[in-house]
């Protein structure tokens, strides 16, 4: 009788590896390797255009994973870049989109929120895994550098 019940037990547990594999595919956090690739691409875009940027990448809670302050970037750019990541995470959208939504009355004020371009949430596979920002050039140029970084890791923006 025990030998006969073994195939029934095997059928019960057979879907388990499939369930575990599909849950492992969902990315829960930004990896250091992804942050490095995004940072390298954003810095390359800044250098190509001769922008002296501070670039920040954080996890989904806003804790920095990676920071680079290029030669010539002022100390103040660090504070602005950090404020951009905090704003993007709090708003759940880019800082440029937040500024537009705020002006149109579609968003609440975020304390010390940044309303100009250059801060983005990082979504991979639809899941929010962090934020990335740049500061040191015009807002549109900061945003261009960040989008280059996001593109390098296949993140949505």
Topology readout:
Elements: H1 2-13, H2 15-25, H3 32-48, E1 54-59, E2 64-69, H4 76-91, H5 95-103, E3 119-124, E4 127-135, H6 139-152
Antiparallel strand pairs: 1-2, 1-4, 3-4
Helix pairs in contact: 3-6
Global geometry: globular
Provide the gyration radius in Å.
21 Å
| Proportion of beta-strand residues | 15-25%
Low-pLDDT residue intervals, each spanning 5 or more residues = 5-24
Q: Please estimate the helix content.
A: 40-55%
Residue-averaged pLDDT, rounded?
89
What is the element string, with H for helices and E for strands? HHHEEHHEEH
Structural class, by secondary structure, is alpha+beta
In order across it, which strands form the biggest sheet?
Answer: 2-1-4-3
What composes the largest sheet? 4 strands, antiparallel
Number of strands: 4
What is the terminal separation in angstroms?
59 Å
Q: What is the count of helical runs?
A: 6
């Amino acid at each position: 009788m025990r030998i006969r019940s073994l195939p029934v037990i095997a059928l019960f547990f057979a879907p388990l590896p499939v369930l575990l594999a599909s849950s492992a595919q969902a990315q829960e956090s930004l990896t250091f390797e992804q942050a490095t690739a995004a940072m390298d691409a954003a810095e390359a875009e800044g250098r190509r255009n001769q922008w002296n940027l501070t670039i920040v990448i954080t996890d989904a809670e806003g804790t920095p994973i990676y920071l680079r302050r290029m030669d010539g970037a002022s100390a103040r750019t660090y504070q602005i870049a950090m404020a951009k990541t905090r704003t993007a995470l709090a708003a759940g959208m880019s800082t440029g989109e937040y500024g537009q939504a705020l002006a149109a009355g579609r968003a609440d004020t975020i304390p010390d929120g940044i309303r100009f371009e250059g801060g983005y949430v990082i979504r991979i596979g639809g899941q929010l895994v962090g934020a990335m920002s740049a500061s040191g050039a015009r807002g549109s140029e900061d945003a261009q550098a960040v989008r280059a970084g996001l593109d390098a890791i296949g993140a949505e923006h």
